[in-house]
Fold Xre-like DNA-binding protein.
Amino acid sequence: MSDNSKVTLGKTLRDARIAKGFTLDDLQQATKIQKRYLIAIEDQNFDELPGDFYVRAFIKQYADMVDLDGAELLKQFDSTLPSTQTQEYVDKVNESNPETRSQQRKVDDRYVQLRRTIPVIGIVIVVLVVLVGIWVAAAHNGNSGTKDNVDSSSVSVSGSSTKTSSSSSQSSSSKSSSKKKAAKTATFKKLSSTTSGSTWELKNASSKPKVSLSATSSAWMSVTISGATTWQGTLSTSTSHSLTIPSSATSVTFKFGNAPATKVKIDGKSFNFNSSTSTSSASSSSTTTSSQVQTVTLELK
């Protein structure tokens, strides 16, 4: 494709923006796309964008904002844009596919149901063991052949039941006390930061912290736990995603394609990784992280 045809896409977007009376700053505020990326799109410098997926996603968002048909514009200038067959683009599209998200939710639901079922099975087994023990004790005592032995056995079984009940009560009280002690509030401490991300320390979280992800506008993100990617996808204002960090995990890394629009909660507490300050114990020398594309790492303590 000639250089003239390449310029046509950028010029079409620029002319539409000017016709709407938008400046690049206005468009940045409305789309949450950084100004330097908007300039790169108008100048056809697609290599300056974070990846092939973002080229098409940002162009469509830009076009829709200036009242152009984003999908039609992408189709019209398809040959001037990065290939849609790259592995990166295919992976990103699959992540944002509703069917893929639906399958992920089904897997999560099965996992939650299994976790709820296991304690019930354990209780049933314990009850069966206790009943079998009582039956064996009763059968053994019945073979003594004397009323005195039967009475003595009854007293013994009663005493055993009382001890078991007392032991169970003490165990329940101990567990309840342990849960109360464990009910601490998660805290976040910023360790370091750059223009492209930051590193934090998470303390006082539960043994298996619950993570909730949401967005105020379209935002791609991924979650890597102890070096293994466990989830990635694109969220919007009407969608969210939750996951559990295993107790064996030592670190969690989040990658955000639209960090300003991304919301993260851990054990119900907001993780304000976009703020210029952290908790009161955070280092005062940490720099502000405001980049749209960010990598945020949590070290678990």
